[in-house]
Amino acid sequence: MGAETRSYDEGDGVLRIHFTGADLGRTKLAPGPLPAWETVLSLHRLQRGDGGLPYARWRREARAALPRAFGALASLVPPQGYFPDFLTPAAPAARLEEAVDLVLSSPRAALRRDLTALAQDRRPSRWAAALGHGDTAALKGLGAAMTAYHAAAVAPHWEAVRDEVGRGHARLARALLSEGTEGMLGLLPPSMRWRRPVLEVDYPVSRDLRLDGRGLLLVPSFFCLGTGVTLLHHDATPVLVHPVEHRPPDPPVGRDGHPRSLGALLGHTRAAVLEALVDTSSTGELARRVGVLPSSVSQHTAVLRDAGLVRSVRHGQSVRHSLTPLGSALLRRGRGPGAPPW
To answer: Helices marked H in 27-154 — which ranges?
Structure first.
């Protein structure tokens, strides 16, 4: 968003998106992950090092392949906080080339506006200052940086990104067809709550977004973490990017080619939750490590707790989970000698 981007436990604000009847009728789902958003949000994951297992292998491979042009793009996309709206055009471009063309054709007024907002948190470089004036060379450099970074860090993984996003996207699409827009809004992640006629989104700061008949474009994202992301300025149809639930990585296999015993016994995701309990952790922390929604973690820890493998203690508004001696023993046996973490 061009707006404030942090993980969902770092802000106590709420973004309130106000719908009218016309907005419910004009709310749409993007056809899938959008390259411009995935490119920018992957820079957050790369720089912050957060998100746990779903991003670990991607981060290693992306860092090894980073092009020199990466620095120019990273100067516009800090690890957290504001990044310019013009980097993620409101029009849902399905290919990066289309998105780059839209970025490079941004009006000078929009470039100046967004870079002025960015300068409130960091001193702009000469290149960024030239970009704000619509300098042709600076714009070409931005296009080259976006293209090179996407080619190195996002494009090699695009099939996996699309598959991962597709599962949750299909669920929302089915709800939209069978239950209408309100049914779909009710299935968004727990950090987003539909309370007719307002969609409340956990957010770093408190804001109100009134759709005023323009509708809303919902964009699923692999690299969005925790809660939603939106633009600071909505010159066209407002956009809300939302995270999807990640499938944990495949479990290690034994010499016989079969999954190791812990995953076979507990189930893939439940074994990943148990493995992620390297220390006493909250539900939200476990969700980030495993890459699933907090509601899913709560279900799995309840089963593990009933089996005597996990203990859970409430502290104020949060619940802290830890391994029992039985859970620790099972985890050691399930890994086997020399086995990597789940």
So the answer is: 35-48, 53-65, 70-74, 96-104, 108-118, 126-132, 136-149
